[in-house]
């Protein structure tokens, strides 16, 4: 691989992992903001209109709960149970929110269609996953940035068909490097 292609792919890889890390960080920040803000939201009465489960592509099941509520004479429908970073089992959710049950719905007064059933913040079981994902993202981003930095510090050379990494200061001792690209 020549120098320009290597640099191009290193830059693309670094940008990819940085964008991925930013996407994960934004998603986490939004969930955190929603869960903390929801602690102060007012509640209204609502009714569960759908409570069922579906099979996921990964072979497991997940719960689907839909509820309706009125704010200032307008009907709203939502399916968000919680902003908490937890992963309750689907069967527990369905037992907790059966169809037809009257429930408390917590809603954002500035945007009443934004609501949930369980306000507040809790790390739950997702804490380990979020920490592990953050570490992986940081390591991959760091490796991409390191590759970019090393690309500027070293020279690639081919000698007798083999590819070598040569540091510029060491080339003086070795003499001229053949077939440098």
Describe the structure.
With 181 residues, the chain is of the alpha+beta class. It has a domain of 77 residues: OB fold (Dihydrolipoamide Acetyltransferase, E2P), CATH 2.40.50. It contains 4 helices and 7 strands, in the order H-E-E-E-H-E-E-H-E-E-H. The strands form 2 sheets. Strands 3-2-1-4-5 form a 5-stranded antiparallel sheet. A two-stranded antiparallel ribbon has the order 6-7. A hairpin with a 2-residue loop joins strand 4 and strand 5. Helix 1 runs antiparallel to helix 3. The mean pLDDT is 77.
Give me the secondary-structure topology.
Layout: H1 3-37, E1 43-55, E2 61-71, E3 74-78, H2 90-96, E4 102-108, E5 111-116, H3 126-153, E6 155-159, E7 162-166, H4 171-174
Antiparallel strand pairs: 1-2, 1-4, 2-3, 4-5, 6-7
Helix pairs in contact: 1-3
Topology, number of strands: 7
Give the number of helices: 4
CATH architecture of the domain at 42-118: Beta Barrel
At the first level of CATH, the class of the domain at 42-118 is: Mainly Beta
Rg, nearest Å: 27 Å
CATH topology of the domain at 42-118: OB fold (Dihydrolipoamide Acetyltransferase, E2P)
Summarize the structure.
The chain has 181 residues and is an alpha+beta fold. It contains four helices and seven strands. It is elongated, with a radius of gyration of 27 Å.
Keywords, separated by commas or semicolons:
5-stranded antiparallel sheet; two-stranded antiparallel ribbon; 181 residues; alpha+beta; OB fold (Dihydrolipoamide Acetyltransferase, E2P)
């Amino acid at each position: 691989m020549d120098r320009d292609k290597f640099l191009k792919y290193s830059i693309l890889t670094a940008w990819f992992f940085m964008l991925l890390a930013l996407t994960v960080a934004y998603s986490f920040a939004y969930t955190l903001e929603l869960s903390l803000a929801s602690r102060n939201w007012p509640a209204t009465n609502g009714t569960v209109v759908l409570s069922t489960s579906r099979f996921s592509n990964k072979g497991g099941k997940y719960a689907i709960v839909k509820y309706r509520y009125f704010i200032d004479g307008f009907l709203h429908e939502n399916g968000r149970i919680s902003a908490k970073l937890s992963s309750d089992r689907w069967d527990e959710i369905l037992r907790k929110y059966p169809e037809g049950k009257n429930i408390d719905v917590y809603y954002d007064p500035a945007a009443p269609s934004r609501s949930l059933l369980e306000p507040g913040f809790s790390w739950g079981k997702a804490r380990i996953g979020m920490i592990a994902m953050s570490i992986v993202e940081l390591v991959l981003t760091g490796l991409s940035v390191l590759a970019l930095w090393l690309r500027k510090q070293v020279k690639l050379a081919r000698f007798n068909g083999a590819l070598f990494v040569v540091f510029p200061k060491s080339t003086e001792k070795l003499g001229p490097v053949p077939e440098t690209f």
